[in-house]
Amino acid sequence: MAIQLRRGLRKRGALGVVALVAAVPALVGPAALDAQSGARAAPVYAISARDKAEGAKAHPELLAEFGGALSGTQARYVEQVGKRIAVQSGLSNATGDFTVTLLNSPVNNAFAIPGGYIYVTRQLTALMNNEAELAGVLGHEVGHVAARHSAQRQKAAQRNQVLGVLGSILSGAVLGDNAFGRLGQQIFSQGSQLLTLKFSRSQELQADQLGITYLKRSGYDPRAMAGVLESLARQNALEAQLRGSGSEVPEWASTHPDPASRVRSALTYAGTTSTGTTNRDAFLGGIDGLVYGDDPKQGVVDGRKFTHPVLRFAFEAPAGFYMVNGTSAVAINGASGKAQFAGGKLTGGLESYIADVFGTLTEGNQSRIAPASVQRTTVNGIPAAYGVARVQSSGSTMDLVVFAYDFGNGQAYHFVAIAQAGGAEAFTPMFRSLRRISAADAGTVKPRLLRVTTVKAGDTVRSLAARMAYRDGQLERFLVLNGLQQDATLAPGQKVKLVTY
User: Fold this and answer.
1) In this protein, which residues make up the domain named LysM (predicted)?
2) CATH of the domain spanning 297-443, picked from 2.40.128.270, 3.40.1000.10, 1.10.760.10, 3.40.50.300
3) Is the pTM higher than 0.70?
4) CB 302: neighbour CB atoms within 10 A?
5) Which helix (H) or strand (E) holds 334?
6) Which of 153, 230, 261, 419 has the fewest Cβ atoms nearer than 10 Å?
7) Which residues 6+ apart lie within 8 Å of 191 measured at CB?
8) Rounded Cα–Cα distance for residues 130 and 132 (Å)
9) What is the per-residue pLDDT across 438-461, written as a single tens digit (0 to 9) for each?
């Protein structure tokens, strides 16, 4: 949750990234057989001047959506690898035509847009185990652009209302097609629309194959694509396990479906043997020190507790709920309801603020939603107010609650919650938990960091896992982070990743 909070809930039109696919790039050549793999390659399109202009226009917006760009040695390393793989796509032979960005985001995500812009989050980068895997993921994303998959997804976007990045993550695990329905999707959507549409299975397989082809051309081990897909599948399963979810949460920010089923296809396409490099040690040295998980500057989720040391507040989710921290909001999810925490400027009274938040939401007939009344209260010394509206969504009767707080100096924060009629009381403990925190409390919030350590004699998987900065799932987190199995034997001198404070 970024420091600059937006009032109400954002509505997005077909602007920014979506507009990028409106222009048809210049065709370089028809589909042809790849010289090394023998597979039919995607048609290749050159980066046009229009692509560059539209990409440059969307780039700042994407940075804002995904936590901003990181700088420093890790970012420069990722940029170097990204440019090396990108020129293999045929979009351009000049590395200077590509902009590769390491995003300050705790979500496993990567994407690319026309104009030579390629993005990967620090969280997904930390999950990888060698340079070839990083190159494979970035090559996969460039492959989507080279094959013009985004243009095909844009046609779907014009036919259907889509969810944002955060909304997609949460709706797959909680919302689905159940009674929360369209209204719930509208409330909890944010992010760039184009990036959140799932690619089809055939598009994913083609992008995998293109990524593998680029790996071969660059001299990397092409089997690395299967390795990172397996790590993603394991990470998805681990997150579902830790949250107590009955099904796996959507993977790769819900835009790259089913990595588990693609592992075998990637291995088949890559071949069983390779003389390519992985550059594992260079990779581990290049990413050592990355922030892992939430950045305290954007607030930190720790179990059911959310703390923002910069904005100086904290609250707790209800029992049985889990949270996901987004760029501009925090989402709270459980079997009985969903909520979102955000904020904005308070230019009038809380009654007006609450009315404005309700005003951003509409029911199926597009009528304006308004609370029956607004009640004043105080929460931990903070002036507050709330309103409840009973609405119809996907044939079910739901209670929609907006609970807002006046933090002074023109700053307000609010929860929006939706539950089955009569079920919104489940959120009352959370509404009442919001409190200011002292400078001393804020100072105790430290970032988790990815640290590369060298195995010493006597170290085991379990002894190293015990050093992971978590209260739950230490062993499982360590194994997935390092691509290891539980019976793995570590050798002195081997390098592994840990997450520490």
Assistant:
1) 451-498
2) 3.40.1000.10
3) yes
4) 14
5) strand 330-334
6) 261
7) 12, 65, 164, 165, 166, 167, 168, 327
8) 6
9) 999 999 999 999 999 999 999 999
